[in-house]
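Hello again, I could really use a second opinion on something today. I've been staring at a protein lately and its backbone has me curious. Can you walk me through what the tokens say about the fold? Take your time with it, there's no hurry, and the full record follows here:
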Amino acid sequence: MENKITFAQSYKGGVFSGLIAAILSTAWNFIAQYGLDIQVSLISWVEITFYTLFFMLIGSSLYFICMRFFKRGKLIFTVIVLLYTLPSCYTLFNYDVFNINYGTFSNETLLPEGFPLLSIPMLLISGALALWGIPKFSK
């Protein structure tokens, strides 16, 4: 029965998961910036909301494709999400391993000292909600 998912159902799962992830990520952003005194003026709640929803909608499209066209769609979706989420977190701690100039973005803007502490929980929130929320809310 899982293979009978429609694109609208998958999209609904992505929207609900994206909204929850955006709220939790924005809450973490405020806690990190004001409670832990990590000053990152580069990230606003509007950007967090937009990009979280955008990537969740991409994830819901991927979920639809996996569930519709593959026998083990849920497993394939899980592997793809994990292969995206975990290396993304890893690279934030290990810039030198990937020959990325630690301390700067690609446009030479200096990275704040606590940037990994700010961004890794947001990546994990989004990844966890993609794994759990998209399948749950797509029913």
Remarks:
- The radius of gyration is 16 Å.
- The chain is about 70% helix and 0% strand.
- Residues 7-35 form the longest helix (29 residues).
